[in-house]
Amino acid sequence: METVPFAKMHGLGNDFVVIDGRVRPIRVSEAAAQAIGDRHTGVGFDQLIVLEPPQSAGADVFMRILNADGSESGACGNATRCIVSKVLDESGRDRIVVETISGLLPANRAGGEITVDMGPARLDWQAVPLAQAIDTLAVPIGLDGLGDATCCSMGNPHATFFVPDLDAVDMARLGSILEHHAIFPARANIGFAQVVSPGRIRLQVWERGAGLTLACGSGACATLVAAARRGLTGRKAEILVKHGRLTIEWREDGHVLMTGPVATSFTGTLDPSLFDAA
Questions:
Q1: For strand 103-110 and strand 113-120, is the pairing parallel, antiparallel, or unpaired?
Q2: 3-state SS, residue 228
Q3: Omega before 140 cis (within 30°)?
Q4: Distance CA 241, CA 235 (A)
Q5: Short-list 276, 277, 275, 216, CA closest to 36
């Protein structure tokens, strides 16, 4: 195998290594993902994205999402925007449909930003999933004074905790514990959110399989849904992360729209020996 080209892209600091396997199939083993994801000896990423030919009618590209620990994820909003931007630039089109293991995601360019229909927020306890039948509006966990979590699935499991002061929360410690809490049989992404006003929410997310990230698109969607369900905001708000903001809208039909920027940091090639055993 020749060297494997990649692009390093990010959405508000949530960063990805993107490999194109649409023409030449590329399988990335768990060990290869971990090696590429190492920020000291590899390229480093929050998620690794492999583009593949679409599997469903109506889709333009299939996006496979691997976490830094090598596990596979069903959704990543910031990565989806990056892939949409890349494919739109290649095709000269304004709209495409991205396929993931969780379903089809229609998307379009909106001015200088990308809007993705992340699909419906799934609110039933079995859809998250939770280990037992509990109202997902208020899931009692009782850790270090955190209130109840509000949970949903955005193609991957999310639990959002609303806190009065985001800066006072030990997110690295609590996130690592809560990801593996027994109530989450498939683990969970843990969001810590501070409502600044009815139209603005500060957010940081401990991502399942990746740890603390600078931004999380699906987490921003889950947070807006949680805030609206609790009556803390309306159905549209800005989600503020460390390097900017996402605009999230929870439509009346249940679908969640996410709008935000993307960027390419650099391109390069990977040693083919990484994939020899894949």
A1: antiparallel
A2: helix
A3: no
A4: 19
A5: 275
Asked whether the CA dihedral 44, 189, 116, 262 is positive or negative, the reply is negative
Q: Is 50 helix (H, G, I), strand (E, B) or coil?
A: strand
- The reply to whether 221 belongs to the active site is no
Check: CB of residue 239 under 8 Å from CB of residue 224.
yes
Check 82, 151, 152, 216 and give the catalytic one. Answer: 216
Residue type, 203: L
The answer to whether the beta carbons of residues 153 and 121 sit under 8 Å apart is yes
Measure the CA–CA gap between 65 and 58, rounded to whole angstroms. Answer: 20
Residue 49: strand pairing partners: 18, 65
Determine whether 76 is an active site residue.
Answer: yes
> Residues 76, 151, 152, 221: which is the catalytic one?
76
d(CA 147, CA 260): 29
CA 248-238-107 angle, 5° bins? 30
Indicate the angle between helix axes 217-229 and 77-91, nearest 10 degrees.
120
Note the pTM of the prediction, 2 decimals. Answer: 0.93
Phi, psi of 260 (to 5 degrees): -175, 175
- Tens digit of pLDDT for each residue in 84-118? 999 999 999 999 999 999 999 999 998 899 999 99
- CA dist., res. 141 & res. 72, Å (int): 26
Which H or E run includes 87? Answer: helix 77-91
| 50 phi, psi to nearest 5 deg | -110, 120
Identify the residue whose tokens are 């599997």. 55
- What pLDDT, in 10s, does the model give residues 248-266? 999 999 999 999 999 999 9
- Taking alpha carbons only, the member of 229, 175, 182 closest to residue 203 is 175
Specify the amino acid at residue 153.
S
The answer to whether residues 82 and 11 touch, using CB atoms and an 8 Å cutoff, is yes
